């Protein structure tokens, strides 16, 4: 089942259950997917859908941090719930150990030796872990291994 089909089914269930917050988040995700599809002029592939979902998740995480800094607990709770809903549509996240092993393989493939190769390693690793690992985690591990 594609992401759009799953979102449509879940949206109907949320409407029937009168789950306003879940329904709102699903509608926002569907709107983002639809807008991107219109912008590209074609239906989205699974990778493109995953990229949009990752972007939505990142936006919410950024908002969460800002609300924490501002001391707005009411908004922190709301965004935390939204993050949980968005994450339910993401593929299973890789463990830190698995990400580290993928990075080790990539470092040997690329032949990286030091800090100057961080960009090359990141460029090669990100497609392998797309949507299954946070970019900041990948960056942190790559930097620790190449310094």
TrEMBL record:
<dbReference type="InterPro" id="IPR023168">
    <property type="entry name" value="GatB_Yqey_C_2"/>
</dbReference>
<dbReference type="InterPro" id="IPR003789">
    <property type="entry name" value="Asn/Gln_tRNA_amidoTrase-B-like"/>
</dbReference>
<dbReference type="InterPro" id="IPR019004">
    <property type="entry name" value="YqeY/Aim41"/>
</dbReference>
<dbReference type="Pfam" id="PF09424">
    <property type="entry name" value="YqeY"/>
</dbReference>
<protein>
    <submittedName>
        <fullName>GatB/YqeY domain-containing protein</fullName>
    </submittedName>
</protein>
<dbReference type="InterPro" id="IPR042184">
    <property type="entry name" value="YqeY/Aim41_N"/>
</dbReference>
């Amino acid at each position: 089942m594609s992401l759009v089909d799953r979102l449509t089914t879940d949206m109907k269930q949320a409407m029937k259950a009168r789950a306003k917050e879940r329904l709102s988040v699903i509608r926002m995700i569907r709107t983002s997917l639809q807008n991107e599809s219109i912008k590209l002029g074609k239906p989205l592939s699974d990778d493109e859908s995953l990229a949009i979902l990752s972007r939505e998740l990142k936006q919410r995480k950024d908002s969460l941090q800002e609300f924490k800094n501002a001391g707005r607990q009411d908004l922190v709770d709301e965004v935390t719930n939204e993050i949980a809903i968005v994450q339910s549509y993401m593929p299973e996240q890789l463990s830190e150990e698995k990400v580290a092993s993928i990075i080790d393989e990539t470092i040997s493939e690329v032949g990286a030796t030091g800090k100057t190769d961080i960009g090359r390693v990141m460029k090669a690793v990100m497609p392998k872990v797309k949507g299954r690992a946070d970019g900041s985690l990948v960056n942190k591990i790559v930097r620790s291994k190449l310094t």
